[in-house]
Amino acid sequence: xxxxxxxxxxxxxxxxKTSYQSVSGPFKGFLEVLVKLQRKLHDKELLDNCPIRTYxxxxxxxxxxxxxxxxTLHDWGLEVDEAFCLGDLRKPEPGSPVIIAISAxxxxxxxxxxxxxxxxxxxKAVNAKLRAHYPESxxxxxxxxxxxNRSDELNNAIREHNLENxxxxxxxxDLINNLxxxxxxxxxxxxxxxxxxxxxxxxxxxxxxxxxxMAEVSESELRIAFDGDAVLFSxxxxxxxxxxxxxxFYRNEREKVNDPMKxGPFKGFLQVLVKLQRKLHDKxxxxxxCPIRTYxxxxxxxxxxxxxxxxTLRYWGLEIDEAFCLGGSEKGPILEMxxxxxxxxxxxxxxxxALTIGIVGCHxxxx
Length: 367
Ligand SMILES: [Mg+2]
Description:
There is one protein chain. The chain has helices at residues 5-18, 28-43, 64-76, 104-107, 119-133, 152-160, 175-181, 192-200, 236-244, 246-255, 267-282, 304-316, 332-338, 348-356; strands at residues 55-58, 82-85, 98-103, 141-146, 167-170, 186-189, 205-209, 222-226, 292-298, 322-325, 342-345, 361-363. It has 367 residues and is of the alpha/beta class. It has a ten-stranded mixed beta sheet with strand order 5-4-3-6-7-12-11-8-9-10, sandwiched between helices. The protein has a two-stranded parallel sheet with strand order 1-2. Helix 14 links the parallel strand 11 and strand 12. 30% of the residues are buried. Residues 227, 229-231, 345-347 line the site of magnesium ion (MG).
């Protein structure tokens, strides 16, 4: 066999290391006492009938890495009954669901228990598409309805609207800790106080406001529109505008045009949406065929401010489907065209504009 010099050095080092024992880890002593007990029992010829059985389950593969592990045990005089050297043949991660926690009152109105926002229906449609293409996947939307009463009416409404597979009910007790434990990606509530507390705990959260009369939105495609500053991005530029005015804001954006902004409270939520989209794109569900569509609707103009926003998303590796840099124009007409299921913004007047045209507005209190 011919080795080049480097290969030879590598091979010699691997051989040397495979015959060299590892320093003991914290559980060596425990294995030692188990093996000692086993030996005692083996002395009574309780070999296969031994009541203790030990297993090593390691991610080291079956080549040198696994060999070195077994060799180390051998050097220590410790025999494990079974060893699994799994290498890279681990089962692919099934992923985890996208958790959205919503106050039950916002989905089913108290008066007639009719469905509130059509949001749940769109989530259900996306789940159906995901399930059709990825039957094994855990990465589906799951909605936690927060309700203290666990009323029969709520259960009936869930059944009536066929939302059993989508929803779970949770009480509002110790809410923030429960949201964290459930890895909540988005929390929507009518209570500004709870939303602020959730945001302080790094959970994307907003006060959801439902218009008197809802615009008709798609039931097969989920559309989500985000404001930029203080929602997807931090409020660093907005603070410049608030304290020093518009000129200073433009100067700041020009100077920092290539510097990505810090992340805002909704970056993580956009990230899980993009991840799901990518999964669907793998199945050639591109563009309008993808059941999730994301929008940036920002007051930043198309010059340096808009460029910096898109550059930040690019830097994060997040591709938004459509971006509207409105240069200070009203957001209403664009939202009317998009007809999103939900629209997130930190400015009350943009939320009001959404509500007047029948769009669900979710207010993200500025941190
Ligand atoms: Mg904003």
